[in-house]
Design brief:
With 370 residues, this protein is α+β, with helices and mostly antiparallel strands. Helices cover 25% and strands 35% of the residues. α3 packs across α4, α3 packs parallel to α5 and α4 crosses α5. The protein binds adenosine-5'-triphosphate.
């Protein structure tokens, strides 16, 4: 695609806004007070465990569900009461939903034929969409003659050919095997960047969301717990759920307290830990201390005396070899603490029972709400 075309596409990308959304199925309150702004051209992920409401939120955007309160705004237009076919959105379903009796070309052309687009334009747009997903050469096959990844690309081509303002993807990679998923992640991202189209996708796989999304809304029980870039969510989680969902984290139970003008965390295991990052929490209840395993420095002899480092003593209770890292499980005052040490060929692993010193930079310790 040339630069001028790319710029024109980027300029025409639209924002998506959700305001005060509440949606119930009967007595089940599924979406609770959703407010969200997705920027034009963003690749945005709805992430969360099974049943948290992410598919319902996507279907609400598409017009397949209606909320009891709130508004859906695409670009400048409120679309809350428009049916799906008037929203100019393209949705790729988990199942791909391809027509088995039609060729790939016919599958991709179908939406344009339904819209009575002239034949010459259909041919041009179908060729371009198939070219974008690298399937032009297989255009005359039927879906059953394609691999899972190729079928996935047909589903994408069929959606982008109608030139939707917003692309909605419902767990688009879940039917693929692990290796193909990783390959398709890159392809999906490349395609999204080429088209500069606002794209929202649903996944329960945090690695998938982290690798392709510009921003993520992490949901639990119908509530967006936090939204931000993958790094923001990982490094600055607002609560225990976010910290725990995104990767491995160490938690100490206890309470936050003031010591003179400084804040300390009084852990239930007896440790008193000075804290600089407490996410605005000022009350003593309902919080926990969090730090990531890769931020824990493990030493056997040397003790780091820097004021910026919090020190714990512990005993190694176990280890997992993860390839590039060794994850040690260390008993610290009765709590398990995980510490990741990068693995280098030839380096000896520490034995169970070894007394170690754990050091964590103050900046890498947080108190968050429970
Ligand atoms: P998954 O990852 O398993 O697909 P999800 O986060 O996408 O989960 P949803 O499919 O949005 O979750 O479902 C959210 C909740 O709403 C669930 O408790 C589900 O049982 C309920 N639900 C979804 N659709 C309906 C419906 N049509 N009628 C009643 N309850 C529904």
């Amino acid at each position: 695609m040339n630069n001028a075309l790319h710029k024109a596409r980027a300029d025409s990308a639209v924002s998506v806004r959700l305001e005060g959304i509440n949606l119930s199925f009967g007595k089940t309150h599924v979406l609770k007070g959703i407010d969200l702004q997705i920027e034009p051209g963003e690749f945005f992920a709805f992430l969360g465990p099974s049943g948290c409401g992410k598919t319902t939120l996507l279907r609400l955007l598409a017009g397949f569900e209606s909320a009891q309160t709130g508004q859906v705004i695409i670009g400048d237009q409120e679309v809350s009461y428009l049916p799906p076919w008037q929203r100019n959105l393209g949705m790729v379903f988990q199942s791909y939903a391809l027509w088995p009796h039609m060729t790939i070309r016919k599958n991709v052309a179908f939406g344009l034929e339904e819209r009575h687009v002239p034949r010459s334009e259909i041919n041009r747009r179908v060729d371009r969409a198939l070219d974008l997903v690298s399937l032009l050469e297989l255009a005359d096959r039927r879906p059953s003659q394609l691999s899972g990844g190729q079928q996935q690309r047909v589903a994408l081509a069929r959606t982008i050919v109608i030139e939707p303002q917003v692309l909605l993807l419902d767990e688009p990679l879940s039917n693929l095997d692990a290796k193909l998923r990783i390959q398709m992640r890159h392809e999906l991202l490349d395609l999204q960047r080429k088209l500069s189209i606002t794209t929202i996708f649903v996944t329960h796989d945090q690695e998938e969301a982290n690798t392709i999304a510009d921003r993520i809304a992490l949901m639990k029980d119908g509530v967006i717990q936090q939204n931000g870039t993958p790094v923001e969510l990982y490094d600055k989680p607002v609560n225990r759920f976010v910290a725990d969902f995104l990767g491995t984290a160490n938690f100490f139970e206890g309470k936050l307290d003031k010591s003179g003008s400084a804040w300390v965390f009084q852990a239930n295991n007896g440790l008193v830990i000075p804290v600089d990052n407490h996410s605005g929490i000022k009350n003593s209840g309902g919080c926990c201390l969090v730090f990531r395993p890769q931020n824990v420095k493990v030493t056997v002899d040397a003790k780091n005396d820097s004021n910026d480092t919090i020190q714990f003593q512990g005993t190694i209770k176990g280890k997992e070899f993860l390839g590039s890292t060794i994850r040690y499980r260390v008993n610290v005052c009765g709590d398990d603490v995980f510490a990741d040490v990068s693995h280098q060929q030839g380096r000896h692993l520490l034995e169970n029972g070894t007394q170690v010193n754990l050091g964590i930079h103050r900046n890498q310790i947080m108190v968050v709400s429970d």
